[in-house]
Every structure is written in structure tokens, then in C-alpha cells.
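agent> Task received from the user: take the single chain below, predict its 3D structure, and emit C-alpha cells. No templates, no multimer pairing.
agent> Plan: (1) validate residues, (2) run structure prediction, (3) serialize to C-alpha cells, (4) report one or two observations.
agent> Step 1 OK, no nonstandard residues flagged.
tool_call: predict_structure(input=
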Amino acid sequence: MATYVNNLRLKEITTGDEDGTWGTSTNTNLELIGESLGYATQAAFASDADATTTVADGASDPARAFYFKVTSGASLTTTRTLTIAPNTVSRVMYIENATTGSQAINISQGSGANVNIANGAAKIVYLDGAGSGAAVVDANALVPAGGVTSVGGTGTVNGISLSGTVTSTGNLTLGGTLSGVNLTSQVTGTLPVANGGTGITSLGSGVATFLGTPSSANLASAVTDETGSGALVFGTSPTLSGPVLGTPASGTLTNCTADGSNKLGFLNVPVSRTTSSSVNAAATDIGKFITLTGSGAVTIPSGVFSTGDIFSIHSDKTGGSTVTTSAVNAYKGGEASTTSSITIPKNGVATFFFFAADHVIINGNYS
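)
tool_result: status=success, residues=367
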């Protein structure tokens, strides 16, 4: 009588048996040997419970495959145990946990040790076939810890521990957190800008000092071809000491002076305003002239003008224009007494020069 006591559960023909049919049995055995070297999948868990799969005697069976993908017909709610029988089979298997429910599974053969396989993971195990006390062993766990010292080409590395020197001749992508690496002595090369680096191999003189202490003095030491000295200047309300401006393309120098005291003037006399109304002379008229038309008239107020201020008034009114000066000390040119008002004839111009605050000398065409 044939037996099936071998590790692949192949049919062992008794001497003298199967006259004329042994070839069929032998061919079947050869096919099953090929099956033991291949891949197969089985819904080993028909329900949410522990299960047993038994390698069939002399017949095709998924559990005979070298790469055994375990699935489930139900969603597992906790870790379940799959027992591979018979418990006398001793062999190496690559088992993948492809069950639904995101649960780990235990691979068992007897009362000995089990191997736990996380959902979505696979492990190389061996069944020791020791009968009722049979154990399943994680073969990878028995491999001595080592390291990859050289990686050629391009690849992604996840879930490994790196120690010593790791050399890559291509692009090595490390996932997760990299710790315990001395960036000064253990890392060489240039990190591209796209990967968070600077794209440069070294920092210029003084740059590292400035990055550590970003002061104006350290910036001046870090840059080259600069002009001038002192503190860093920004655009809003800076204080400049002795700058050489060259030839500015544009700008407004309303509040600038020529020598620290005297305001900058004009190369011509611009019009301040033309009016046919009675108005007060204002600080905006300094250095300019007012044209009076129609009923236009001007009053010189007190407290507006300072030493050195000057402006002119032009009359374009038939019969002349009146300027009231009673609020200040106004002197006609060359006279010692003050006047309270003057009249500028049509096409006449009178110039008002303040030799002191609220003290003005009037020159020009007037009466």
C-alpha cells in the first residue's frame, strides 16, 4: 500500500505495486514537486476564527506552495491562528498575510512556537515537523545582524538600520527618521536645493559667522564688492551718515537742506498757486510766487514764516491787488516804519523776504 509520509505528501509506491500505472503516479509526484516550488493563494480563514489547512496526500494543494499567500473569506477582528497540517511535515515556506480586516495572523504547526505575521507583510519560516510539539520558526530572525556597506544604482531603502559607512553610487532615498549621523564627519557630497540643501559645497568667508550671528558688522564681513560702511539700511526712514548719492534718477528733496540749515531751492521760480479769492500766505508758498486775478488778495499771517523764507506775489488784476501785512512787522524796502498793507499794480511783482520770524521786507512793484 502506498504511503505519504514525506515532507511534500507525495505518493510513495510500495515495491511491486501499480504495475502498469506507476508512470501516472510518478508524473503526479513530479507535478506536485513543481507545485512546492511555486506560488499559490488560499482563503484559509473561511470565517473570523482560527483555522487549519492540511496539505493533501498526493494531490494538488495551495498549502504545498513555497510562496503561500493567505487570504480570508471574512474580515478578521483580531489575531487569528492558522495551523498547517500534518504536524510531521518539515519544510521552508514564504507566507504572506493578505487577509482582510488589517489583523496579524499566527502560523502554527503544533504546541511549539508560532510565528506572527503582520497584515500586508510576509515572512520566511520553517516548519520543524516535530509532531504534536511541532514549532514554526522565523528563519529571518536567525540571520546574524549585518549591514549593507555599498549600494549601487538607484533605489529606496525603508525599515533598515544603518551603521558604519554607507556608500551609494546612485541615488539612495532613506525613509523615516535618520538619527545618530554626524553631518560633519559622516556625510559628504552636495545636497541639491530641490532636496532641501543649498547646492553649494562650502560657504564663503564670513558667511557661517553671519548665519550664526546676523549682525550688520558680520554681514559686511561676509559680502564682497560693497561700498561704504556702518549699519544695514532698510527703505523706511533710514539714518545715513555721509552717503555719496551719485546722480539719482529721481527723488523729492522737500525736507533736505543744502548745508544743514538752508533748504534746497529752485533754479527757477515755480508757481505756487493762482487765485481770484482772498487767501492767507502759507509755508507752501516759500520759494514760489502767487498770482492774483479778479478779486484775489493775500493776507500775511503771523507765526508761519521763519528767518530766510521768501516768496513773491504777482498781480494780474486791473487796478491792482491788495496784500494785508498788519499781522507781521512789514517794512517797505529802504523804510524804517512798518506798513499794514500794500497794493501791487497790474503786472507788478512784490517779493517778501523774512529776515526774522514775523519780520518781512517788501521789495518790488507796489504802493
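agent> Step 4: summary for the user.
Residues 22-142 form one domain.
agent> Done.
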